[in-house]
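Review form for a predicted model. The reviewer records the input and the model, then writes brief findings.
Reviewer: anonymous (R2)
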Amino acid sequence: MENVYTLENNVDITPSQPPRYAGFWMRFWAYLLDLFVVGSIDRLVVYPVFRLLDLSVDKATMFSPIAIATAVVFYGYFVCMTKFFQQTVGKMVFGLKVVTMNDEPFTWFTVLFREVIGKFIAKFILFIGFLFVAFSEKKQGLHDQIADTTVIHEHEC
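Model under review:
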């Protein structure tokens, strides 16, 4: 039987279920789908624009114009999708959602800290920061712990 509490003004409150945290493999598959989306944007938009403007698409150095443009698309995609929708296309497909640990709305600072700085640090240490998801109680990667966020299943089945 489900617990129901009644407040003074006769409003029934059912205790909410604790969130179901998204594990490593669900997040991994969502990320692979996101890489496909970002790669598609690069190949359908960025590269044709560069060819149209007769700019080099050679990634000879990390600071070549095409490398910078694709990095802007990559980080822009993750930052904007997380800020405005709390999920990327990959997370949408798999029913996942990024949330703050204190249930407050995302600020630009939180999103930039998670998606740019936190993920850079997680990748810098040989991607070990992402393995934290598999072993932490609330399935937080290093970037989640830095930004005080986590990924949950959006809807219960």
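Findings: The radius of gyration is 19 Å.
Further findings: The longest strand covers residues 96-100.
Recommendation: see findings above.
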